[in-house]
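Supplementary Methods, section 5.1.

A reviewer requested that the exact input to the structure prediction be made available. We therefore reproduce it here, unchanged from the version used in the analyses.
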Amino acid sequence: AGTPFWLRCVYDAGVLAPDLLAAARRRHSPDAPPPLSLFTAALPPADPDAATVRFDRPAQVRDLRAAVTGWAAAAGLPADRVADLTLAVHEVAVNSLRHGGGRGTLRYWTEGRSLVCEVSDSGHITDPLVGRLRPTTSQLSGRGVWLANQLCDLVRIRSSASGTTVRLHMFLP
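The structure derived from this sequence is encoded token-by-token as follows.
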């Protein structure tokens, strides 16, 4: 209400994890909170058994890519989607190094029929719609999160003064 913001939600109920599908249904009920609250509500906790890799140097991003590629392929994600997920993780990890305090943590796990990669850092994003608008051709930066949104089935971002978490989802066939 009162903003030029429109949100269209398209879900494949056959592959969306049950908790995400339930959340989508709640958000589309008549008593749902305002749309921008979709970008601020706390994320569910990461899987306690998630693989965890900390990084603080650009050379380590190559290791992150290799880990995600091997894990996603072994989980049964098709090769083109493995490449998409790997590139999305790369872009978000590089953002952590450049804008998120120079270090970050990658966690990855399987959640139902979804592969989840989460990159957390100490940076703070002030734009709740970061990565949702197509960058202009004259922009020198600002493409990483937008690209992740184009490549992944779902991107969830939470940011506060204590840090930022970007959660990337790819649905298994």
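Strands lie at 51-55, 104-111, 114-121, 154-160, 163-171. These observations are discussed further in the main text.
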